[in-house]
# Entry
Amino acid sequence: MNHACAIYPGSFDPVTNGHLDLIERGVKMFDHLIVAVLRNAEKEPLFSVAERVEMLRDVTSHFPTVEVDVFEGLLVDYARQRGAGVILRGIRAISDYEYELQMALMNRKLEPALETVFMMPALSYGFLSARLVREIARLGGPLKGMVPPQVETRLRAKVA
Ligand code: PNS
# Structure
């Protein structure tokens, strides 16, 4: 498993400026960054997997080392399959830590060769989450600075 290749997994429903901030930081640290969208049959997303992938590709097209992909099943199996040695996750606040620690330790139990690396997004994105962005969009609130302009356009169209 290659530690120069990292997977940044998530739901990305939709991609926010906080995700993009983390991708930018990941690009500086890893030779190859795979942004992996989970296909989760249990969750009811606002955007389809295809829409989420399209938006992610659109907003990361200027990063030659970033690849956007879809995975299902266990993240550790996908990491093995892709030969990635690192899982990249963002931590905004202490409230994220418990869930992230649990996932990281469980992933380590499932695959000891895989390391989880946590990075903090810029402080200004500490309050931002895709869930709140979806809620603000549904209620017609302002999204300036929270998502890329093309994502805002698609959000407005989706909830209209
Ligand atoms: O953006 P999210 O919803 O916080 O991302 C969660 C994600 C996709 C990282 C997590 O749910 C995941 O890895 N799911 C894949 C299934 C899996 O491996 N589960 C065991 C995790 S310990």
Remarks:
- The mean pLDDT is 96.
- The first strand starts at residue 2 and ends at 10.
